Amino acid sequence: xxxxxxxxxxxxxxxxxxxxxxxxxxxxxxxxxxxxxxxxxxxxxxxxxxxxxxxxxxxxxxxxxxxxxxxxxxxxxxxxxxxxxxxxxxxxxxxxxxxxxxxxxxxx
Length: 108
Known about the structure:
This protein has a single domain, classed as Hypothetical Protein Aq_1857, Chain: A (Sandwich). By secondary structure, the chain is α/β, with parallel strands linked by helices. It has 2 helices and 9 strands. The chain is globular and about 35 Å long.
């Protein structure tokens, strides 16, 4: 099982962790939401839980995932993209079978 992060995403997360001044890394998870069933969740992590899976990626950053979310996220690459005036994280998840039209939720 593996989760990866592009250089662009790693640079973005590293900048925010540095501004924040503390934190173990970021938590990547899923929750039930949206018209397709699931949505991605990203949040800073200050303390890793014993059941968490930790993936060390570029720049000594950690992506932390709970076991339930890992089933849906295995093989995902986290990217950070800028398109015109918009910017944000992009999830390249090989497990996704469909996405809603607005791109906010997905189904596996």
